[in-house]
Amino acid sequence: MIIVTSLTPQDFTTGEVLALYRLRWRIELAFKRLKSLIGLRGPPGFDERSAKPYILAHLLTILLLEPLIDELEDSPRWAIAA
Fold this sequence. Notes:
Layout: H1 14-38, H2 48-65, H3 69-72
């Protein structure tokens, strides 16, 4: 695996960079799962006045549904080792 980063070796060890990458990937997967759960594709149009409320409404939906996700999903969630 090759990871390109602007973090310097003096500030972050290789292990710390890999831990940050793993965390980032977990966040990406969580957003992908939530987007598919609520059907978020993209804003309807390019006007900020309609796009911003559309995105905010979907984020609110995610916050409201998060406690119920286990009951709504078709497949079980598997524990991810940190």
